[in-house]
Batch of 3 targets.
Target 1
Amino acid sequence: MSRDTLSDLLLTVRLRGAVFYYVSFKDQWSAQAPEGSEIAEAVIPGCEHAMEYHMIAKGSGWAAISGEPPVKLAVGDIVMFPHGDSHVLSSAPDMEPFRLTADWIFSTRNLPKPFPIAYHHGVLEPGAKLPVEEANTIAVCGFLGCDLKPFNPLIAALPRMLHLPAARAGDWVSRVIDQAVAESNNPRPGGSAVLERLSEMMFVDAARRYLENLPEDATGWLAGLRDQFIGQALALIHQMPDKSWSIDILAHEVGMSRSAFFERFVKYLGLPPMQYLANWRIQLASRLLRETNLKVAAIALEVGYESEATFSRAFRRLVGSPPAAWRKSQTSF
């Protein structure tokens, strides 16, 4: 009941982190990463969606995705790709990149991490790294995974490229980068687990900072959280998903008329309040189906449905299969 809405969503969609590569660059360089959907199973097994991030530990560079202007990166900066876009890191804009393939990433999936890579004069050397003093730029690269289905409104609310300049990232982020470099150069027991948790914290902090800097006229799930009325309605839905909510009750709780509340909710979220509630209930149910041994009837009651039949129909409409069959597909591997 006391959890905030953003934390509630992140816990339910199973946010997971992994640091994978320690990359040292020299002279001119440009490298392109594949789309997250092509490599998700290699980098975050069991997750539907993979987002790559890069922490600049030394030097500078540029980050770019198709259709958007490149972004200058400096030491201490972090750049993330929440939608899993293929992207390019380079020493200068508009350079022809070396393309890392999904096959190569799958081939290195079981090697000890963070895995060192040296890149210089257009030559990629897996398993090698340049001495710190020789590298012009050093990046620690990793992935964040989460579920997109049945319902995850956060990813759509984030930009395709999320840049956190060092000046806005806070002192703790610089310590995260320092820790990632230290673990990369001198691996210790438990180091991977430490870096995974730090990656997850970094993503949450990035989402919060993006929320704090949204323009006043922004819409979307994060903007809805910030809104006085819609944020309160979302908190109520997340805190008490099993309650018999209606548009009238929610509007009364947040102090708005029914019509004004409905219009405001749709403006921010892009869907009606009752559809959001139904989607969120199914998202909660999917987690219970995956992570517990509760019977389907018990899960139906837990998330606010009066009968197993009603719940099963709603689940099938959103997910495409009945709850029992979906649970079996998630545990069969």
Target 2
Amino acid sequence: MLKAGFIGAGGRGQSAHYPTIHRLADQVEMAAVCELDEERLGQVVEKYGFEKTYADHRVLLDEIDPDIVYCVMNEKWLLQPVLDCINAGKHLFIEKPPGANSDETRAILEAAEKNKVWVQVGLQRRYTAVNREAMRVVNAKGPVSLATTTFNKQLPQRADEFTTTLWNDLVHIVDLLRYMAGGEPTEVTSYQDKFGGDGFDHYTALVRFDNDATGVMMGNRASGGRVIGSELHGVGIGCYMKIPAEITILEDNQSRTLGGWEIDGVDEDDVPRYEGLLHMHEDFIDGVNNNKQPIADIRDVIHSIDLVDKIEAAEIMEKK
């Protein structure tokens, strides 16, 4: 049984991570929580029965001495609590993006390597059932030829946002693109545009990988509503994913469609399982218990952050 401390009880934590970890009560003890907002603190205490509460994460680390820490907060405030946890020798889960910029991500990586701890990043699309199935069937037939990722919504960039849409939102599909393609980028062409927002809210990137796969990333927060999808193609096979609900597989001119819940063998309403949340947290726990690098550990995620940097740099060059 791993003893867990929690830093932050905001919307994302309460809607996704707290209830998911609560499902793993046979593996994780939810021992203590640190939160400055008294209302949010009261909500998680009432729901999950925390007996130990703190306003200072450093006191939590000293008094509770947890095995793992879930530090789920906005990237604006993330770095110092993360470094404090890592330097205390604690394995850590953080949400995406991993820091306020790529320099902070590299600082987190350096600390994780120095202290020999795992830092799992909440890039759950790697764990989504339909994406896992696509990678399984395509890789079984031969090399990947093309990967695409799409993330559209109606949420224009605001002037008061701390980071860019690419960094704090579309990093999900940049990471998924690299992960599915299975290589490292060698060429990047990209564009950014403003359509109704205060900043760039429309991104498109074409990526060539060192394994000869091509990747296309399309992210548009100036669209009409939320759609997230992906494609993965190989030799004689193409997969079309509506994330997280459905995959259509075309193989040798034959078509079959599966629900994400069918792939994982669960009820259709068990969305946290087949959308990847539960798999992601189980992978983190397994990594800690068996000293095995989790799939979305910072050591691998840094390569996706490097791709984000390349897309940003290419955009800047296009605009000059």
Target 3
Amino acid sequence: MLKTLAPCVLLVLLAACGKQGAAPAAAPAAPVPAIPVVNVGINDEACEPMQLTVKRGKTQFLIKNNSARAVEWEILKGVYVVEERENIAPGFSQKLTAKLEPGKYEMTCGLLSNPHGVLIVE
């Protein structure tokens, strides 16, 4: 009788141990919202486009130099430089991620003597 009962007792003990040592299931992670990407081209005379509208918060700007010389791209609030990328070589792109508050900003478009673009943050 003990020989037939021993396997049953062993199974009950193993089952109980397995339940006690089991880790609770992890809750699924909340999805991380994607940062919007805005393409900006710089030619010899201006930005492409000359006016942009973005939402407040983080935005990633992908700046492509379509001119024949190294250029810079800046976000200005009045006379203050909020964010910038300098020395972007001809034919190359650079990324700039900025966290912006609502308002109206200016963008330098290549040479400082070029017309400034407008960046509106809603």
